[in-house]
Amino acid sequence: EALQEVAMKFLAQVEFSDEEYRVKISSVFADMHISVINASTRMLLELKRYNYVTPTNYLELVKGYRALLAEKSTELGSAANKLANGLAKL
Asked: Does this model's pTM top 0.70?
């Protein structure tokens, strides 16, 4: 639950149409981080190879999602404007 709270804090600056999206996305981030930790443990047992999973990795995941979401929102807004302008000229 601490992982979810951290994700919720970082996603607080992102505007969602429904608050439930924020909760579900933060839950997915927490599940992903825990599954990577479990896979790393399994990798150590089976392959004798270390894979370090740190809190910084989790923060990078959340920040990367925020950056990608902002980029795609900008692209989508730009495409919508181009479509509207094109339709207006027709």
From this structure: yes
